[in-house]
Amino acid sequence: MPYFLLTEVVVGVVAGGVNALDSGSLTLLSYAASLPLVAVTALFGPVRPMSVAAVRAMCEVPGEELADGPAHSWAARGRASAWWTLHLGIGALISGMTLAVPPMAVLLIAVPVVGRMRDMRLGYGWFATDAAPYVAPLLGIGLLAGLTLCAVGAGRLLAGTAPVLLGPTAADRLAAAEERAADLAVRNRLARELHDAVGHALSAVTLQAAAARRMLERDPDFVREALAAIEDTTRRTVGELDAVLGLLRDGDPARPDTAPAPTLAADLDGLLSRTRAAGTTVTAHQDPGPAGDWAALPAIASREAYRIVQEGLTNALRHGAGPVELRIRVQAGPDTAHRELEIVMTNPPAAPAEDRETRTTGGRGLRGSAERAALLGGSVEAGPHGDRWRLRAVLPLAGEAR
User: Fold this and answer.
1) Residue 4, CB-side half-sphere exposure with 13 Å CA sphere
2) Which of 60-69, 195-204, 321-330 has the lowest mean pLDDT?
3) Separation of alpha carbons 227 and 235, rounded Å
4) For residue 220, what are the CA distances in angstroms to 214, 280, 366?
5) pLDDT tens string 169-225
6) What is the mean pLDDT of residues 272-281?
7) How far apart are CA 271 and CA 311, in angstroms?
8) Which end of the chain is less crowded, N or C, counting CB atoms within 10 A of the terminal residue's CB?
């Protein structure tokens, strides 16, 4: 109606200052002139979300067939403009028919029962015939039926064209896929943090408690050390768990790096001491390279390296037997222009007859370590190596994370 009223005034002025509504041809011309205005306004962003909401509410079109959000390309804007123009153009015709047809139909249906209306010609000579009082109601009912069919047909036409004109474009699908991929990456990151932190803590605490129980009578000093390690491990893990759950609760996937993550510089020695408190011998050889300090490593490399070492120690505690040898060093990369961090951890595998934890599920930790290394462009290898089990990770220290 706003578009039509505007063009009706303009057409009336151009036609010599007449009222365009007094002329059928000028009325149709005003209607035709309003459609380009409708199409132009539909190119603006809010039109598509508004149209999609209307279609979902009134046309019963499945939501997955329609695009969400404003159009991001001219092709999408053009399709949304086409549907908006079709919607308003057909809606204007149905609205005009709805205003004119019902009163006329009621009048025709009332002809046989209202005496004064029987002789009304209403501009049609055949109303004055003897059959007019009986034909008029049928004509009125036919007009109402035609109006109903037109409204239903218009609704089905709009519902049928909505998935084509308001459906997601290739750009929309790409944006949705990127959003899902980003969300999945955040979820995987948080899952790795939970697995590494909680999994290591549970394995270490279990073995520390078992060792303390066995040495309760023979070595009270060892028991006190094991209990202190249990206290320290659980306190750290509760803090990490609370921070990760806070991220999940707040629903802020845009800042995955705010998840708690100790580094080699901050907690490598503590990690090794807590592992030793479980009764496992760990021999560590550390070579930070020319810098002479793990604090000189890039923060993300130091963080991911810590988690990889933690996962290797967890596997050694759960599935290994005997001492663990750990070597961490900074060395020249393959092109000699960049450095890389190498982590090598070996330990004897547990014999099948030993009373060790039976693995019913697993592999997530090693897969998570491989994902961590891949983020930096590195790699992780794990498997039998001679008569020992070996975990080897290589993390480039130059360039950005992938």
Assistant:
1) 15
2) 195-204
3) 12
4) 11, 18, 36
5) 777 777 777 778 777 777 777 777 777 667 767 777 877 788 788 788 788 888 888
6) 81
7) 11
8) C
Q: Residues 226, 209: contact at Cβ < 8 Å?
A: yes
The CA distance from 231 to 201, in Å, is 11
Using DSSP bridges, classify how beta strands 339-347 and 379-385 pair: parallel, antiparallel or unpaired.
unpaired
Q: How far apart are the C-alpha atoms of 141 and 218, rounded to whole Å? A: 103
What pLDDT does 238 receive? 79
Taking residue 239's Cβ as centre, other Cβ atoms within 10 Å add up to: 12
* Domain parsing of the chain, residue ranges: 42-168, 174-396
Q: Are 236 and 204 in contact (CB under 8 A)?
A: no
Say how far apart CA 348 and CA 99 lie, in whole Å.
Answer: 89
Query: Are 67 and 167 contacting, i.e. CB atoms less than 8 angstroms apart?
Result: yes
Distance CA 312, CA 392 (A): 9
Kindly state the helix (H) or strand (E) to which residue 382 belongs, with its residue range: strand 379-385
Nearest CA among 192, 189, 190, 188 for reference residue 200: 192
Integer Cα distance of 9 and 22 in angstroms: 12
pTM strictly above 0.70:
no
Cα–Cα distance measured from residue 381 to residue 370, given in angstroms and rounded to the nearest whole number: 8
CB distance 109 to 137 below 8 Å: yes
Give the C-alpha separation, 353 to 357, whole Å. 11
Question: What is the mean predicted confidence (pLDDT) over 97-126?
Answer: 72
Q: DSSP E strands: which ranges in 169-304? A: 282-287
Query: What SS3 state is found at 349?
Result: strand
With a cut of 80, say whether residue 358 has pLDDT above it: no
Euclidean distance between CA atoms 305 and 61, whole angstroms: 50
Q: What are phi and psi of 400, to 5 degrees?
A: -90, 155
DSSP H or E stretch at residue 84? helix 74-110
Q: Tell me the DSSP string of 119-149.
A: T--TT-GGGGSTTHHHHHHHHHHHHHHHHHH
What is the rounded distance in angstroms from the CA atom of residue 175 to the CA atom of residue 69? 11
> Quick check: helix, strand or coil at residue 62?
coil
Superfamily of 174-396 according to CATH: Histidine kinase-like ATPase, C-terminal domain (3.30.565.10)
Torsion of CA 307, 310, 314, 315, to 10 degrees: 70
